[in-house]
Amino acid sequence: GERLPKPERGKMRVHKINNVNKALDFIASKGVKLVSIGAEEIVDGNAKMTLGMIWTIILRFAIQDISVEETSAKEGLLLWCQRKTAPYKNVNVQNFHISWKDGLAFNALIHRHRPELIEYDKLRKDDPVTNLNNAFEVAEKYLDIPKMLDAEDIVNTARPDEKAIMTYVSSFYHAFSGAQKAETAANRICKVLAVNQENEHLMEDYEKLASDVSRPAAPSPAGSGTPLPPKTAVPPLPGPQDINNGWQHLEQAEKGYEEWLLNEIRRLERLDHLAEKFRQKASIHEAWTEGKEAMLKQKDYETATLSDIKALIRKHEAFESDLAAHQDRVEQIAAIAQELNELDYYDSPSVNARCQKICDQWDVLGSLTHSRREALEKTEKQLETIDELHLEYAKRAAPFNNWMESAMEDLQDMFIVHTIEEIEGLIAAHDQFKSTLPDADKEREAILGIQREAQRIADFNSIKLSGNNPYTSVTPQIINSKWERVQQLVPKRDHALLDEQSKQQSNEHLRRQFASQANIVGPWIQTKME
User: Which of 15, 285, 416, 465 is the most exposed place for a label (fewest CB within 10 A)?
Assistant: First the structure.
């Protein structure tokens, strides 16, 4: 391992903080981002910070380097597990928590690479504790993988800790990946040796056949009386140099053919990898887009309040961020489809059709997202205008409502007068009140006009208002009802005042008549008394 700076020997808090900082600096130098993790929190025993730092270190040094078919560390490790455990019954690895609860996946990984260590067929799915302990003990004893997990904790937890299982499974990956590479290299060497041995046998057979052809025929026995057949012209036999040249041409042709085969194998492997990668990314994208069009087409903003529309806008902004993040996946899907076409993939038509469908749907989502953004912003603007109108209505309706209530009280107020002057004063005050009614009616129309304008904006933009002004309980119906009541009380007050005026005038006439008669009778009575 690499050397760390020499630690300080003191036991004071400052020494501990300095030592932890040295370790954190070393970790940061390896490209590990320690966000919001400080030496003080670790020295003070902050368990959450310490566990977070430990997981970051594990992720960087044990998991991040794992890569299967250009996937991320977590996805690559999951894909590796899925491929290794695919042939095993009762094993379906889909995640790093629930899929491992019964312990069969751990045993399947070990059996796939070291079948002599595990009797997989004897394992039972309904005995998870035994399965887990078996895998942990075998891994610790024969694979040098320490026991990091507890079987009872995994079984008794509804959802086992994902990070702990990822860390433990990564140990299997590192333990088996080296052995797999060595086995692959050994297999390749064996294949090369077999080819060389076959070539040597062919060379020996060729040399033997060439020597048999070049050997002269046996002479005819003397005195046999049998005439010898005419000599056949034998073509000149190839010499050693010709054989050597021919062999070199054969080797070159063989080498060229081998290179072509290797290139073709690489191309087919590349095609298989790209096709699988295309299917995986396309499936993930299609699962993400499911239901998105319906969500973007809904018109929930038509019945929303101003606070609701602001929440919808924030939610839409979050979706736009998510949409932008998926842009890279769509581009990758298109790039993979293009490469499959360039490499003459046999199923290019279906790949192109699926890619085109994804791209078309992506364009539709982009258009719907833009349209919904415009609709939300437009509705927000209209609701803000309506909200301002509601506020103005409330500010003017409240005092006008109070004025009408006071007017109704005054118009229904009982009056007691004894003179013409008093009733004439009341009539004058009433006439003054009636002179203010035209202005009051204009104010009423203005207030109702504010409400009508708010309703007009809502109707024009297909906005369904709740019907209640959030700033006041005084509705247009209340204003009109009280105004009609005022209009009814005014003539009644007129009649009452006029009747009282006639009554006071009659009383005044009687008082004057009485006074006149009293002035005549008074002196006469005085005379009689004297």
Answer: 416
Asked whether residue 342 falls in the same domain as residue 419, the answer is no
Question: pLDDT tens-digit profile of 142-196?
Answer: 988 888 889 999 999 889 988 888 888 988 888 887 655 545 545 555 565 666 6
Exposure class string for 416-438: b at 16+ Cβ within 10 A, else e: ebeeeeebeebbeebeebeeeee
325 located within any domain: yes
Are 120 and 114 contacting, i.e. CB atoms less than 8 angstroms apart? no
Answer whether residue 203 is part of any domain: no
What is the helix (H) or strand (E) element at residue 339, kind and residue range?
helix 306-342
Question: What is the domain extent for residue 88?
Answer: 73-185
Measure the CA–CA gap between 208 and 204, rounded to whole angstroms.
Answer: 6
Better-predicted residue by pLDDT, 47 or 503: 503
282 Cβ partners below 8 Å, 6+ apart?
333, 354, 355, 358
Q: What is the DSSP string of 252-284?
A: HHHHHHHHHHHHHHHHHHHHHHHHHHHHHHHHH
pLDDT digits (tens, 9 = 90+) for 415-436: 888 788 888 888 898 899 999 9
Give the pair of three-digit tokens for residue 496. 């009452």
Cα Rg, the chain, nearest whole Å: 51
pLDDT in tens, 25-42: 777 777 666 666 777 877
Are residues 448 and 363 located together in one domain of the fold?
no
Buried residues in 453-469 as b, exposed as e (16+ CB within 10 A): ebbebbeebebebeeeb
In this structure, is residue 81 part of a structural domain? Answer: yes
Alpha carbon of 240 to those of 211, 221, 437: distances in Å? 11, 33, 133
Spatial distance between the Cα atoms of 25 and 4, rounded to a whole number of angstroms: 10
Cβ atoms within 10 Å of 223's Cβ, excluding its own? 6
Cβ atoms of 27 and 34 within 8 Å: the answer is yes
Q: Which of 348, 382, 416 is the last residue of a domain?
A: 382
In the predicted structure, residue 54 carries a pLDDT above the cut 80: no
**Could you identify the residue written with the tokens 């919001």?**
36
In this structure, what is the dihedral angle of CA atoms 383, 384, 386, 389, given to the nearest 10 degrees? 170
Please tell me the distance from the alpha carbon of residue 286 to that of residue 329, in angstroms, as a whole number.
11
